[in-house]
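Section 5: illustrative case.
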């Protein structure tokens, strides 16, 4: 049947309050379809009966769908022939996938975006606290049911997040220790107190920089890896397969990573402390004319155990934050590659931000407690 021989689309009033569509509602009659729908809207908006349509294509369905939306009609109340149901369902499923609107500017739009951001952050905080509670409960259940503990997986992740990160943590800590010694020496030299650079490096690294440097490195390296790994499994429906087999994804995927990070982050913090102190000693020996023996003796005289314990006490807390955010963001992936990328970025930003905020709160609290 050619376009010339097809019946033009029209709308016929019927006894019931449901006008009937006649003719061919296809691309060849786009203008006639639009005119007929305008006339129907002017006469009164009612659901339409399309069971009498001879031919129907995707443009015809879109025209009817837009007519329903413009006039506030329920598209589900429209009637179609059984042979057209599959086409109508397919077009209705994808009809909402339109390009996003352009960004709006102005005070009202900025306040709206701020409100949405606050709401999203509040939801993220609630989700993180809930996820923490779920993991604590399942850790307690694991104590009662040791068969749930996955030792091989835990050791594997300990190697990935711990041993594999030692070279990077050691190098960065050594360089940061050297930088702190250089900066401190430049300032203290004006007061003739260059020797006090030893105390500066000791206190700075043992209390703050050792654990903070290590946590930031693992936030970028490990949290993103956790999110990408679990997110890829979610997108490939492997997590759903685990649930189908009766396995708990938290037991299988989250707890081994959490335990591995809780064990390895304090050890990496210790490595960072040692390398940071060595970086300061290297600057003292080669840049400040402080012999290594004198630097070491001064370090031994002035170093206090409480500074080391304060820094080490933060490590398990930071490890829990990094592991939980990394795994939670992975489990929240929607199944697309774009979602994996967005969640990976979000996990890195959240972990680094929260680690720094918690470190500041710890510093204030320890200072007020005179520790």
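Designed sequence:
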């Amino acid at each position: 049947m050619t376009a010339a021989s097809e019946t033009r689309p029209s709308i016929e009033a019927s006894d019931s309050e449901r006008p009937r569509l006649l003719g061919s509602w296809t691309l060849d009659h786009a203008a006639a379809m639009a005119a007929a729908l305008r006339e129907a809207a002017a006469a009164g908006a009612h659901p339409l009966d399309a069971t009498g349509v001879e031919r129907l294509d995707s443009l015809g369905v879109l025209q009817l769908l837009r007519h329903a939306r413009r006039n506030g009609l329920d598209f589900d109340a429209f009637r179609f022939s059984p042979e057209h149901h599959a086409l109508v369902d397919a077009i209705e499923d994808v009809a909402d996938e339109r390009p996003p609107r352009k960004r709006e500017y102005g005070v009202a739009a900025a306040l709206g975006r701020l409100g949405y951001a606050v709401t999203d952050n509040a939801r993220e905080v609630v989700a993180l606290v809930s996820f923490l509670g779920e993991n604590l409960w399942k850790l307690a259940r694991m104590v009662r049911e040791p068969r749930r503990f996955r030792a091989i997986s835990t050791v594997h992740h300990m190697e990935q997040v711990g041993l594999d990160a030692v070279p990077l943590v050691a190098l960065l800590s050594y360089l940061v220790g050297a930088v702190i010694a250089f900066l401190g020496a430049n300032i203290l030299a004006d007061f003739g107190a260059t020797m006090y650079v030893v105390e500066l490096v000791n206190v700075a690294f043992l209390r703050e920089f050792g654990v903070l440097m290590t946590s930031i490195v693992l936030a970028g390296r490990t949290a993103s890896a956790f999110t990408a790994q679990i997110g890829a499994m979610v997108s490939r429906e492997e997590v759903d397969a685990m649930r189908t087999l009766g396995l708990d994804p938290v037991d299988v995927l989250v707890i081994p990573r959490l335990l591995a990070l809780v064990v390895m982050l304090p050890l990496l913090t210790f490595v960072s402390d040692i390398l940071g102190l060595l970086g300061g000693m290297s600057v003292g020996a080669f840049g400040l004319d402080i012999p290594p023996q004198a630097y070491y003796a001064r370090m031994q005289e002035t170093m206090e155990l409480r500074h080391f314990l304060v820094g080490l006490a933060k490590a398990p807390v930071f490890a829990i934050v990094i592991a939980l955010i990394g795994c939670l963001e992975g489990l929240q992936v929607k199944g697309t590659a774009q979602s994996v990328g967005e969640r990976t970025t979000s996990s890195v930003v959240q972990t680094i931000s929260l680690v720094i905020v918690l470190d500041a709160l710890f510093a204030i609290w320890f200072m007020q407690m005179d520790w």
